[in-house]
């Protein structure tokens, strides 16, 4: 049987679901997801913290723009965010990076404060404040811990409420012209607009469709979870990150999670943590804190998929009518999703660029695929 739609979306992660919720207001949306549930890959493996200590200027503008959505979600969404401080730390070598990050964060946020050792201990008593460890810190008191389940389910509900469909267990295995998609299950789907929101697989989906790939790179990131000392109640601790990409740590249901902020190239797939990356995470926790990772209770890895300039991509493929890219969300796909979905909606419909996006310093040329080296020849 063939199912027809105005917009056919491949990928049930945050990218596909968020743009689906917007496009469903303009026509029939059908979203197909290979796995048996949405959010199985990167979107379900994120630590879902929104902060300004990641990405370049465009990503920070997308992050800032998206905050309003998280703090005052539209109808159909449960609460999406809890305010939680983001504490950035530096050793001597990281000091210039900390100063620069503080300057950048202040440009986007008010609640930013430089901290001495005593004030920093108020947020995280386990910091190792020493000449060879933490020598400086600042806090952004209004970081946001996002609820990934509420976010993904809210978008899925919005699609369905507008008459759209989210079909799981439907892996696209062949793509014909304008756009006829064959699923592994035997079902076919047709739409004049095909949105490629396939995360780490997005280039492979393009190749299946005979469209030039963007040159996306999936990079693996590792998380470990461990028990804090029995006498420490960590539930209100902040998100703690070194000023350069070296280590981060955050409370997780009474335990602590940590990452070595690794970026190892990997193939699209069910990413698994590597023993060495887990050991590096544990070591780096002990470098910057008084904590010792005695037993890892839980671990996972996921893929963060980047375009060459590390800015997410939305827009029609220059070489294929009706083939729309929404890819390269890297390590910020959740915290930028509301802005990227609004951008993708405007570009997919060929609508005027929203004033609010322009006021936030965002222009289509930053986001469209044409900017990438894949199209420079
Ligand atoms: C450890 C870790 C920590 C992170 N922390 C944060 C954070 O704190 N804040 C933040 O904003 N971001 C964070 N991220 C990044 C964030 O998770 C990603 O940017 C985001 O999830 C990407 O979403 P996506 O929808 O593009 O990809 P995905 O969630 O991977 O979705 C793509 C979907 O496409 C489906 N698909 C692929 N091929 C096909 C096909 N042929 N047919 C049908 N379906 C197909 C896949 O099954 C998959 O479900 C983190 C990522 C990791 C791994």
Automatic annotation (TrEMBL):
Keyword Membrane appears in the UniProt entry: no
Bilayer-crossing regions: none
Top-rank lineage group of the source organism: Bacteria
Residue ranges occupied by any FAD dependent oxidoreductase domain in the UniProt entry: 6-344
Key words, A-Z: Oxidoreductase
One Pfam short name: DAO
Record-linked PANTHER family: FAD-DEPENDENT OXIDOREDUCTASE DOMAIN-CONTAINING PROTEIN 1, SARCOSINE DEHYDROGENASE-RELATED
Name under which the protein is recorded: FAD-dependent oxidoreductase
Species of origin: Sphingomonas horti
Taxonomic lineage of the native organism: Bacteria, Pseudomonadati, Pseudomonadota, Alphaproteobacteria, Sphingomonadales
